[in-house]
Amino acid sequence: MFVTPPLPPPTIPAPVIQEDARYYVIEGRSESELVAQMNARGYQDKGGRYWGYTSPQLKWSFDTQPVEGRCNLVDPKVVLTITTTLPAWTPPAGTSAAMTAKWRALDRAIRHHEAEHAQIARDAARELVALMRAHQRDVSCGDLDASLQAQGRVIMRRAEAANVELDKRTGHGAREGVTMSW
Questions:
Q1: Which helix or strand (DSSP H or E) is residue 66 part of?
Q2: What pTM did the predictor assign?
């Protein structure tokens, strides 16, 4: 009599993370001109217009398959696409060194703030992978699917709340230097 050994657990791959930066061009010599251009050309959504914006698209999927009275996770995937929109400015000839230095500080601050949003998305993607690695089998496929879906929704809501909290705590980056005054 031959006994078939149980199937090994599926390999749960690391998340596939793709990042892209998009730029909108602004022009001018003064802070007021640059601010006006960022206010007019920055990323816009239903919440308003933003000088910099990070848009994560987090998708995860899996199938389940009954095997020998238990249900196994099959073909798990986590794919994260992060698109960050930023202003691009090339100082025109004759721009003061002080103005160029202010721009560099603002640019660093915007990039830092948007990188914080991107990190929240990366962390959520890694949490989804960890969830699937921890729950590769269950008694029934219905239980496995329901459990993963419910816990995955918690991870996604937690990431959304972290982004809202980051913007609230930093004033959409203003307390981190995403500001210009004249």
A1: strand 53-67
A2: 0.91
Question: Are the CB atoms for 179 and 106 separated by under 8 Å?
Answer: yes
Contact 128, 79 (CB under 8 A): no
Quote the CA–CA distance of 105 and 148 in Å, as a whole number: 43
DSSP-derived secondary structure for 113-124: HHHHHHHHHHHH
DSSP sequence for 78-109: EEEEEEEEEEE--PPTT--HHHHHHHHHHHHH
Tokens of 151: 């816990």
pLDDT in tens, 90-109: 999 999 999 999 999 999 99
For residue 135, give the DSSP letter: -
Q: What share of the chain is helix, strand, coil (3-state, %, to 5)?
A: 45, 30, 25
* Domain extent listing, the chain: 16-176
H or E stretch at 43:
strand 43-45
